[in-house]
Design a protein that fits this description.
- The strands form eight sheets. Strands 3, 4, 6, 7, 11, 15, 17, 18 and 19 form a nine-stranded mixed beta sheet that branches. Strands 23, 24, 25, 26, 27, 28 and 29 form a seven-stranded mixed beta sheet that branches.
- The chain is built from 13 helices and 38 strands.
- Helix 9 links the parallel strand 28 and strand 29.
- It is an alpha+beta fold and 706 residues long.
């Protein structure tokens, strides 16, 4: 015992003392880090737990008092479409059925075609039908709010994006229905000798970049899961809850679709890459419906029809009078003009964010693989993937050698979808990958960017400005992926990028659209296009037609030109020779809704001009134009208000945000969707915690050993 006590009192060697002090210091640091990480992990764990809860089939919403509730509204939709020539007119009927014992206000964020012109609204309650009016947006909100609070039934529709709208229906009685009918028209697409029509039924939730807005700067009504940011100040208005079909009533979120197709020429076939079809001929009209009957609103309905060989139109003119003024629309399809193929610098940009999880990332990898197959030995290429940040395969475009292509295909096969959708940095990397001073006509090289994405972003306008600012002597082509891509982003990004767009609805639809795209990318058919209308008062849109690629028509609509004289369209062919075509306007056919198409194009032009100049749009001018043509716009809304109160003041009104269905083929992890990110941050943090506990165990063992 005396020996032990004596040993304990002996001075500890300096080396051992330093080791003990270092170990104690590390133990203290580890405990503090563990405590801080615990504070960080807890909210992530809660968020992941909520996501798991929602994925299990329990849809949780909140009422106006913040109490959690299940959705009480059943949503049914009817699309009744009439196609005449190049314009489709649609009656979209929404039926909101209240299955609860409380009075309800229904709110529903929904997509429409990106070039839709909404021109009528009616609300039906029992035997009464109330016709809506176009009002300035602030006044429409005021009228709707007063009607809702006073117990009167009302409906309102607002435009959030050119392809995204909000419908509000106030004072739906317990156990009863309110029917809201929208009328809108959209242009029919015509490319590569084929007509097509897309009816959106759901949407991919957008990624909302940017720092949060301070509470004092947030204005408006708040409905969605997202909060306003500097880059997306209306994030809450474009972020409806996204759920699985099992999360809604069995008869909810289904649509009946009927298309009356009057093409005006004999058809070779009518097909759909999205749904099976039933067709029957009724005189000059073909009736088309989905063969399954009412369809789930979880994928866009796409319809295509092709004229009999040799009967495809090469030119057409339509005429309409409205408000004492003449409106004309002309379509000119230039013939194929083969030219020599120039070597290319081709940059593929692929979206690998969380919104691409599931079938979308498989389609994107296949599309990129098809693009690699088109490369010739004299071409150079690169691949950029992006989610929360971009990553390039090469530092700069490299020759399309066999070794580089093998490396690229291996790289593509390993791409996975996760993280946010930080598209701006990927665009900067892609558009800045070459020398912006290079001119393809001087160097003999063509610089092209192919952007493969679902377009799930909320800051579209900022991205369009970026494309215009950074494009230089390049062309941007977009490929829309998934069952419900953001077609507004696809079309407009390609337009600002002087390229073209392609949409792919499912894997079986992959081949033909991509072959057409990559064939068109070899060279424009016509450049420096000019359209000369007779008369000094002609106001045509688009004002300056862009380049035309193989299979694309020039379509222009004009006000102030009677059906007299000739239209001359001219441009430069790939060989540098002048191309010209003349159309006799006296041969124009009758057209409906041309004035609305012109007004919509005029409004888009005013918005574009303001966006490019970094200015506020001319709101008063847009309001006057929209009201003159009875159109929905960013500054006008439709509102229908009944005059008789039906709900007494002592009966509470509960708000119900009707969700949208998760797009078919998308990963189930996107339910609720507060960001396009996955739970990878939580897993990383848990891994760090585990490492620190392991370090603590090692330290403890070392201490015991001493």
């Amino acid at each position: 015992m005396m020996l032990s006590t004596t040993l304990l009192r002996l001075p500890v060697p300096e080396k051992i003392a330093n080791r003990i002090r270092l170990r104690r210091f590390m133990e203290g640091i580890t405990l503090w880090l563990a405590f801080l990480l615990l504070l960080f992990v807890q909210p992530l764990y809660v968020e992941a737990s909520v996501g798991d809860e929602l994925q299990s089939g329990l849809l949780q919403l909140t009422d106006s008092r913040g109490n959690r509730q299940e959705s009480a509204l059943v949503l049914e939709s009817d699309f009744d479409v009439t196609v005449s020539g190049l314009i489709a007119d649609t009656r979209l009927i929404r039926r909101f059925r209240n299955t609860s014992d409380d009075w309800r206000e229904g709110r529903f964020v929904f997509p429409l075609p990106e070039k839709a012109s909404v021109h009528a609204l009616t609300m039906t309650v029992g035997e009464r039908t109330i016709t809506g009016e176009v009002r300035p947006r602030a006044l429409a909100r005021e009228d709707y709010g007063k009607a809702r609070d006073s117990g009167r039934q009302a409906a309102m529709v607002e435009q959030q994006r050119p392809n995204l709208f909000t419908s509000r229906v106030a004072n739906i009685p317990p156990g009863e229905d309110i029917i809201v009918e929208l009328r809108y028209q959209q242009p029919v697409d015509y490319r590569d000798g084929q007509f097509s029509l897309r009816l959106p039924t759901t949407l991919v939730p957008r990624y909302m970049p940017g720092p949060l807005l301070p509470t004092g700067e947030v204005s408006g009504w708040h409905d969605g899961w997202a909060v306003a940011t500097r880059q997306v100040p209306d994030a809450d208005a474009i972020s409806p809850y996204t759920v699985q079909p099992a999360d809604v009533a069995p008869d909810s979120h289904r649509a009946r679709i009927s298309v009356s197709l009057n093409a005006g020429l004999p058809l070779a076939d009518v097909t759909s890459p999205s749904h099976g079809l039933e067709t029957r001929v009724d005189g000059q009209v073909m009736r088309v419906t989905p063969s399954e009957g009412p369809v789930l609103m979880n994928r866009d309905f796409v319809l295509r029809w092709r004229p009999v060989r040799g009967r495809a139109p090469v030119a057409a003119v339509f005429h309409e009078q409205f408000g004492g003024e003449d409106y004309l629309m002309a379509m000119v399809v230039p013939g194929a003009a083969p030219g020599r193929k120039l070597p290319r610098d081709l940059v593929f940009v692929i979206d690998t964010s969380g919104s691409m999880a599931g079938e979308s990332i498989h389609q994107a990898r296949q599309a990129l693989g098809r693009g690699l197959d088109t490369l010739a030995p004299e071409d150079r290429f690169n691949i950029i993937q992006f989610n929360s940040q971009p990553h390039a395969l090469f530092m700069q475009p490299e020759p399309a050698s066999a070794n580089n292509l093998v490396r690229a295909r291996r790289y593509v096969s390993r791409l996975q979808a996760e993280g946010g959708t930080e598209m701006a940095s990927a665009l900067s990397m892609a558009l800045g990958s070459g020398d912006p001073r290079e001119d393809g006509r001087q160097t003999g090289r063509v610089r092209q960017v192919v952007f493969i994405t679902d377009g799930a972003v909320g800051n579209e306008a900022a991205l369009f400005r970026q494309i215009r600012r950074e494009l230089g002597n390049q062309r941007l082509f977009t490929v829309g992926i998934g069952s419900a891509p953001n077609m507004h982003f696809m079309r407009e990004a390609a337009r600002w990028g002087r390229g073209s767009y392609t949409a792919i609805s499912n894997p079986a639809d992959l081949g033909a659209p991509l072959e057409a795209l990559f064939s068109a990318m070899e060279a424009p058919v016509l450049t420096d296009i000019q359209a000369h209308w007779p008369g000094a008062n002609a106001e045509a849109f688009p004002e300056r037609p862009g380049d035309l690629f193989l299979g694309e028509p020039l379509i222009q609509v004009v006000r102030g030109v009677p059906a007299e004289g000739q239209l001359t369209v001219a441009g430069l062919a790939p060989d540098g020779k002048r191309w010209e075509r003349r159309l006799d306007l006296r041969q124009s056919a009758g057209g409906l809704g041309l004035h609305r198409r012109w007004a919509r194009a005029k409004i888009d032009g005013l918005l574009d001009r303001a966006s490019v100049g970094g200015e506020q749009p001319d709101e008063e001018r847009i309001i006057r134009l929209a009201m003159a043509h009875n159109l929905l716009s960013p500054f006008t809304s439709f509102v229908a208000v009944d005059s008789t109160p039906v709900r007494s003041g002592d009966s509470p009104l509960l708000a119900d945000s009707v969700p949208t269905l998760l797009p078919a083929g998308t990963s189930a992890g996107m339910v609720r969707y507060p960001q396009t990110a996955t739970v990878s941050p939580l897993l990383i943090v848990l891994g760090l915690v585990g490492l620190m506990f392991s370090a603590g165990v090692v330290l403890l063992r070392g201490r015991v050993a001493l």
